[in-house]
Design brief:
The chain is an all-alpha fold and about 150 residues long. The protein has two domains: about 5-90, Hypothetical Protein Yqey, Chain: A, domain1 (Orthogonal Bundle); about 100-150, Arc Repressor Mutant, subunit A (Orthogonal Bundle). Helices cover about 75% and strands about 0% of the residues. The chain contains seven helices and no strands. Helix 1 packs antiparallel against helix 2 (about 25-45), helix 2 packs across helix 3 and helix 3 (about 50-75) runs antiparallel to helix 4. The radius of gyration is 18 Å and the shape is globular.
Length: about 150
């Protein structure tokens, strides 16, 4: 976990949490580090910042799914813990892209690709996702692309 600045920052935050005896924060940071390390082991290479962002974005998505499940299941105790976990994960992710900025990207890519309707959605999504990586949820991007191509 040496080639990524984000991974290095994660490691230093773990040390800070250990010194501060912040048990809950330390647990979340270690889970994040384990997720990154697992991908490194699986792929047998050091991860770049972009790769680490993908891992942490995926981790954040899992936590968001847990929050939704706990909310629907009426599990307030688990819901609070998952929400606190998401706050920590979000410290390492770039800020969410605004709807206005996302719309500009979508319109620009639709013009670039010459997309005319819903049949071109896959091509548009393929071009947009690298531009919004880690800053916008795929389902949010998909919904805006669909709206722009149909409307």
């Amino acid at each position: 976990m040496a080639s990524s600045e984000i991974a290095t920052r994660l490691k230093s935050e773990i040390i800070v949490a250990m010194k501060a005896k912040a048990k809950d924060r330390l647990g979340v940071l270690r889970m994040m580090q384990a997720a990154v390390k697992q991908v490194e082991v699986d792929e047998r290479r050091d991860l770049s910042d972009e790769d680490v962002l993908k891992v942490l974005t995926s981790y954040a998505k899992k936590v968001k799914d847990q929050i939704k499940s706990y909310g629907e299941g009426g599990r307030a105790d688990l819901l609070a813990a998952a929400e606190a976990e998401l706050v920590i994960v979000n410290e390492f992710l770039p800020a969410e892209i605004s709807d206005e900025e996302l719309e500009k990207i979508v319109v620009g890519v639709i013009q670039e690709t010459g997309a005319t309707g819903p049949a071109d959605m896959g091509r548009v999504m393929k071009a947009i996702m690298p531009k919004t990586a880690g800053r916008a949820d795929g389902s949010r991007v998909s919904a805006m692309v669909k709206k722009s191509l149909v409307g």
